[in-house]
Amino acid sequence: MTVRLGQTMHVNPNYFAEYEKRHQSLPTKFPQMKKALKEAGAHNYSIYLDKNTGTLFAYLEVDDLEKYQAIAKTQGCKEWWHYMAKLMDVNPDESPVTNDLHEVFHMD
After folding, report:
1. Using alpha carbons only, how large is the chain's radius of gyration in Å?
2. Is 102 a catalytic residue?
């Protein structure tokens, strides 16, 4: 069963372009992160930026929520978080501060 996830995060205004640039380089600079996402069954992953507020909206679908959440324990993920930490609001472990959203409507 596919699980749809939505989250908000925050990127610092001075880093909008750098945030986008780093995500565009993910396949070549952090292939282990892309591989971990694919192996965890993540797909249809998109991140949108509100340039007025720095709010990021992330949407993705996963085949297995527990398998997806386990990515946080991998070295590749921790390295990605460290690489992105100065650009956004993060927790003490450098994971992005996220707000999980509750789905109220979906149309196929």
Report:
1. 14
2. no
